[in-house]
Write a sequence for this structure.
């Protein structure tokens, strides 16, 4: 299992929730506002998650964060909607 820092786990959880709610990924500004950090720091957290293979993104393209496989061990379990 991949080890994450407390902040990386919080950013990961935010990404999962944001994408589930809006259907697209947040901007660095959105992440920064959520965690009260500057967008550059948000980018560094995203780059760290990318380096660990948890997500991917297209450099230079807005809202291009793609989460890893749904079976990834850090992913929140899906709850069926009835």
């Amino acid at each position: 299992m991949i080890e994450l820092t407390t902040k990386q786990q919080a950013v990961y959880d935010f990404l999962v929730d944001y994408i589930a709610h809006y259907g697209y990924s947040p901007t660095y500004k959105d992440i920064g506002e959520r965690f009260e950090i500057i967008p550059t720091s948000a980018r560094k957290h995203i780059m760290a998650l990318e380096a660990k293979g948890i997500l991917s993104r297209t450099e230079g393209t807005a809202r291009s964060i793609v989460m890893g496989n749904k079976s990834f061990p850090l992913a929140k379990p899906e709850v069926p909607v009835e």
Remarks:
- The two ends are 31 Å apart (CA to CA).
- The chain has one domain: 6-67.
- The domain at 6-67 is CATH 1.10.10.10 (Arc Repressor Mutant, subunit A).
- The CA atoms of residues 31 and 37 lie 8 Å apart.
